[in-house]
Amino acid sequence: xxxxxxxxxxxxxxxxxxxxxxxxxxxxxxxxxxxxxxxxxxxxxxxxxxxxxxxxxxxxxxxxxxxxxxxxxxxxxxxxxxxxxxxxxxxxxxxxxxxxxxxxxxxxxxxxxxxxxxxxxxxxxxxxxxxxxxxxxxxxxxxxxxxxxxxxxxxxxxxxxxxxxxxxxxxxxxxxxxxxxxxxxxxxxxxxxxxxxxxxxxxxxxxxxxxxxxxxxxxxxxxxxxxxxxxxxxxxxxxxxxxxxxxxxxxxxxxxxxxxxxxxxxxxxxxxxxxxxxxxxxxxxxxxxxxxxxxxxxxxxxxxxxxxxxx
Length: 311
Prior knowledge:
Layout: E1 4-14, E2 23-37, E3 46-52, H1 65-77, E4 84-90, H2 100-115, H3 122-133, H4 139-144, E5 147-152, E6 158-162, E7 170-176, H5 182-187, H6 195-214, H7 217-223, H8 230-233, H9 240-249, E8 254-257, E9 264-268, H10 273-286, E10 291-295, E11 304-308
Parallel strand pairs: 3-4
Antiparallel strand pairs: 1-2, 1-11, 2-4, 2-5, 5-6, 7-9, 7-10, 8-9
């Protein structure tokens, strides 16, 4: 029997305030991807089955992002893609700023790599994922796990380092029942920024990394400030100010936009987590909206690949 592969990929939260397009963290929420090689003589090149919440909104033909990424892998190898059956189990909400597209890209690349006999290293997979996504802040932590900072040099070569995340910092995600596309979120950003804004973000990025590593809530309250993307994107997220104020009033260190939004991320000390969840839910209800609010954990494993072989 031909081999089959299971790939589990975590959700991610990107930017974390000042770390626009360069920092992201892996969260304990997952999409699962199952790949089975089909007989070479099959008439169909691909079959795709999607399960889970919002499954009806995911394309189940050759336009599917997982399959498009699968094809990109074999194009990179200059090999014809094998016929494959793909099953997708959704656990990460779509178009909410939690890296759903990054899970598809990482899942497609890892599934293809495993079925091809693992010719590419994890680093090579990472570079392909960044090229496909266009920026590293979601695909890198989705692949590697943890909190990661990625930087490209003048020749476009990537350096990735881990950012220590103190165990006393609890990520709480607040996922509202409306969507915000990455394209719309990027369209409101200015083309140029002042020197003062650049200096502000440099300082806050340094403070963010220090605050995450040692759990200093007083540092994080300041460190989550940003002048590059959040002031512009807040206008697209109804109730943002009310939610942020409610979370802060019961002990959250601060609230940021997760990725492009509209999900909001509150960083909390353990003792405030329950109160923050309840306060966020109330705040959005008062705005006439419903939200799914969950306390998660930092995922430290990243994507997990299991190859199943049958005799």
